[in-house]
Amino acid sequence: MAYIGFARTHYNPSKTYELILEELKKLGFKVMFSKHHWMGDAPFGLVIVETDRGDVAIRWSLGDEFRLKLEEVEKEDYDEFVEDTLEYLSGD
Q1: Rounded Cα gap, residues 13 and 15, in angstroms
Q2: How far apart (Å, rounded) are the C-alpha atoms in residues 32 and 46?
Q3: Which residues contact 72 (CB under 8 A, 6 or more apart)?
Q4: What rounded mean pLDDT belongs to the chain?
Q5: Exposed end of the chain (fewer CB within 10 Å): N or C?
C-alpha cells in the first residue's frame, strides 16, 4: 500500500519538511529516504518519503497552523497524485 497526505503549515519549506518527517515517525513510520520539491514562488510543495510501511507523498500548502492528514491509497492513485503535483510544480 501507499499513502497520500495533505499538510497545512505556517512555517517555511525547510521547517515544514522537518515537521512532516517528525510526524511520520510519531505515527510509526520508519523513514528510509525522503525528498522535498517546491518552487520559491509557489505557496505549496511535495514531500516524497520511502518508509517501511510503503511510499508516502504529502502535498503541503500555506495555512494558519501546522496539521497533517494521511490516507491509505492504491499504488496507482499514489503515482497519479505524485505525477500531478510534480507537473503543477514544474509549470507543465
Answers
A1: 6
A2: 17
A3: 1, 2, 3
A4: 94
A5: C
The reported pLDDT for the residue numbered 71 is 97
Task: Kindly list the distances between the CA atom of residue 4 and the CA atoms of 40, 41, 68, 79, in Å, as whole numbers in the listed order.
Answer: 23, 23, 11, 10
Q: Which residues contact 70 (CB under 8 A, 6 or more apart)?
A: 3, 4, 5, 27, 56, 58
Cβ atoms of residues 5 and 57 within 8 Å = yes
* The three grid cell numbers given for residue 91, joined into one nine-digit string: 509549470
When pLDDT is averaged across residues 80-92 and rounded to a whole number, the result is: 86
Q: Residue 92: which pLDDT band, with cuts at 50, 70 and 90?
A: low
Res. 40: pLDDT tops 80:
no
Q: Count of alpha carbons within 13 Å of 46, Cβ hemisphere only?
A: 17
Length of the chain measured in residues: 92
pTM: 0.92
Bridge partner residues of 35 (DSSP): 48
